[in-house]
Write a structure and sequence with these properties.
The protein is α/β, with parallel strands linked by helices and 219 residues long. It has seven helices and eleven strands. It is elongated, with a radius of gyration of 21 Å. The two termini are 32 Å apart.
Length: 219
């Protein structure tokens, strides 16, 4: 696979990423990662090891690890023995790269890194919820939720298959002293769905007519 083929594959899978193939790109990436304007949606950095210095490799992998960004290294099989084993690379793949393995390793690198940061991370298909930092991602893209939307999602996703009626959701999320009606729940569920169910493959919350809602069980 060429570099363009790899980029096209990752884009088709919805994996926002950055690719580093030269020393200049490595320097530019380091500047980006340490700036306030870094690409926050990118969850993966693709590294072509043969083109990069040991210094740049170490700096990039260290910073990516601290920012919860996975790194996938492309390496020649003949170079495996000289790779520094202390480099904090999420995963590596030998060239020539084959498309099915490449896509699988890229997805696993992102998913495994997300799960390794906190044992409490809730993973439901391509949806990840991190209660430690209140971060929610769908298809490896961060989703900005209001606090009540986040609380609703956390409650439902923590108990997949359980049906919650509107009154229960209202009391658990808004509290017993809240004087608003159950319509508030419907409005927040609608807003939540608009943010996490962005295509036909992302259907997480089910409506139980005349009762309430539940988070669907993953097949």
């Amino acid at each position: 696979m060429s570099m363009e083929d790899m980029r096209a594959c990752l884009n088709s899978e919805g994996l926002e990423h950055l690719q580093v193939t030269t020393e200049r790109e490595a320097s530019e990436l380091l500047t980006l990662l340490t700036s306030a304007e870094r690409h926050k949606n990118s969850r993966l950095v693709l590294l072509h090891i043969a083109s990069l210095s040991g210094h740049h490799l170490r700096r990039i992998t260290e910073i990516c690890s601290s920012l919860d960004i996975a790194t996938l290294a492309i390496v020649e099989e003949t170079s495996l023995r000289i790779i520094d084993p202390t480099l904090n690379i999420t995963d590596l793949i030998c060239s020539p790269v084959k498309e099915p393995e490449f896509i699988l390793r890229a997805k696993r690198a992102v998913a495994n890194l997300a799960n390794s940061f906190d044992d409490d991370v809730i993973a439901r298909d391509n949806l990840f919820i991190n209660p430690t930092n209140y971060e929610v991602t769908v298809n490896n893209k961060r989703v900005n939720l209001r606090f009540k939307e986040y609380e609703l999602l956390l409650l439902l996703a923590s108990n997949p298959g359980r049906v919650y009626d509107r009154a229960t959701l209202l009391s658990q999320i808004w509290g017993y002293d809240y004087f608003g009606g159950t319509r508030t729940v419907d409005v927040h569920i609608r807003r939540l769905r608009s943010k996490i169910e962005t295509d036909s493959d992302n259907r997480f919350i089910e409506t139980i007519w005349n009762v309430g809602y539940r988070f669907r069980t993953m097949d």
